[in-house]
């Protein structure tokens, strides 16, 4: 999605009014479709997960924050864009508060990567809780992963994969869950960047550890089964099932709208806002919308899309169908 119009004025001002470097604080699978990561496989368990362990302060993101003094990259301030394109990245990649994060394999990262990118192992940010795989790790575990990878807690982060993927979207959600609200997904990923004209780095890279500090767990980014069950009758939520039609037809949460995560894409990039919004016309964009899939991978793409379309309150059901489908006390359709 092209953000050049939106950032034209701040960019012009930055060129006209030289400023000193600022110490920046955080501101504000089925058939032939692409497969999810391995943690989004079917899981057999009748035990619901407990809430993800955390020793961080729990915050509420409902009101958001303003950009703050140090927020030079306007589009990635709190409540800003959650999807950026390669033209935007090319313009801003040398900004002091931008950090690029690669979620591809170490081999792919070493072969060729966007200049300056670090690598984060998204699998290390997920764990099994009460028999349900793919759950977000604790605050302390996440902080350790971010520190070892060299993530900066004052950075505006741009996440990319080979193209738009569940893995990259999951990391965007994870950052937001842990209070890092200046984060965006690169539309089209490395394929869009690597056009033969733009430069790339090659060779093995060594991470420079940081002292990343998790700002706090944003509790309203994540829900559990009981939260949804308590709001089904009468229905007060919008529910989006990001699984394939076949999985949805075999069983889903009552009232959920099925939008296979791949439907949001065309050729490895996001469709236009108008095309994507047309997929969700039955969902009230002013209320609370919950995205789910099998264990929260594909639903992360739905989360990013709904956030980008301006839905007021988007949350992820982390346990997803792995939890819901394994509990006999919860209703399902058909």
Task: Describe the secondary-structure layout.
Layout: H1 4-16, E1 58-59, E2 83-84, H2 86-92, E3 98-102, H3 106-111, E4 118-119, E5 126-129, E6 132-136, H4 139-149, E7 156-160, H5 166-177, E8 183-186, H6 189-193, E9 217-218, E10 222-223, H7 225-229, E11 238-241, H8 245-250, E12 257-258, E13 265-266, E14 269-270, H9 273-277, E15 288-292, H10 298-308, E16 313-317, H11 320-324
Parallel strand pairs: 1-9, 2-8, 3-4, 3-7, 7-8, 10-16, 11-12, 11-15, 15-16
Antiparallel strand pairs: 5-6, 13-14
Can you describe this structure?
The protein is of the alpha/beta class. The chain folds into two domains: 180 residues, Oxidized Rhodanese, domain 1, CATH 3.40.250; 105 residues, Oxidized Rhodanese, domain 1 (3-Layer(aba) Sandwich), CATH 3.40.250. Helix content is 26%, strand content 16%. The chain contains eleven helices and 16 strands. The strands form five sheets. The chain has a five-stranded parallel β-sheet. Strands 10-16-15-11-12 form a five-stranded parallel β-sheet. Strands 1-9 form a two-stranded parallel ribbon. Strand 13 and strand 14 form a beta hairpin. The protein is globular and about 55 Å long. The two termini are 37 Å apart.
């Amino acid at each position: 999605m092209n953000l050049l119009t939106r950032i034209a004025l701040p960019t012009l001002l930055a060129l006209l009014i030289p400023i000193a470097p600022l110490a920046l604080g955080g501101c504000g699978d089925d058939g032939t479709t692409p497969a999810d990561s391995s943690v989004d496989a079917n899981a057999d368990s009748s035990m619901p997960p407990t809430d993800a362990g955390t020793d961080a302060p729990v915050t509420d993101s409902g009101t958001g924050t303003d950009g703050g003094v140090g927020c030079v990259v306007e589009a990635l301030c709190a409540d800003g864009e959650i999807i950026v394109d390669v033209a935007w990245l090319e313009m801003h990649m040398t900004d002091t508060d931008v950090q690029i994060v690669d979620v591809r394999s170490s081999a792919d990262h070493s072969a060729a990567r966007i200049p300056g990118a670090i690598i984060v192992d998204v699998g290390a940010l997920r764990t099994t809780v009460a028999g349900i795989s793919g759950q977000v790790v604790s605050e302390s575990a996440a902080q350790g992963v971010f520190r070892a990878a060299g993530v900066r807690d004052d950075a505006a982060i741009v996440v990319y994969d080979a193209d738009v993927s569940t893995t990259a979207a999951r990391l965007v959600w994870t950052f937001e869950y842990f209070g890092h609200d200046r984060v965006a997904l690169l539309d089209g990923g490395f394929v869009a960047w690597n056009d033969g004209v733009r430069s790339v780095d090659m060779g093995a890279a060594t991470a420079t550890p940081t002292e990343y500090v998790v700002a706090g767990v944003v509790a309203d980014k994540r829900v559990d089964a009981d939260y949804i069950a308590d709001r089904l009758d009468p229905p007060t939520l919008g529910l989006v099932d990001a699984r394939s039609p076949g999985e949805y037809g075999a069983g889903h949460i009552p009232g959920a709208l099925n939008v296979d995560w791949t439907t949001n894409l065309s050729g490895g990039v996001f469709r236009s806002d108008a095309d994507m919004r047309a997929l969700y016309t039955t969902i009230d964009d002013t209320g609370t919308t919950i995205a789910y899939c099998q264990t929260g991978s594909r639903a992360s793409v739905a989360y990013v899309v709904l956030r980008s379309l301006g839905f007021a309150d988007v949350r992820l059901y982390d346990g997803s169908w792995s939890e819901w489908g394994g509990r006999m006390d919860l209703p399902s359709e058909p």
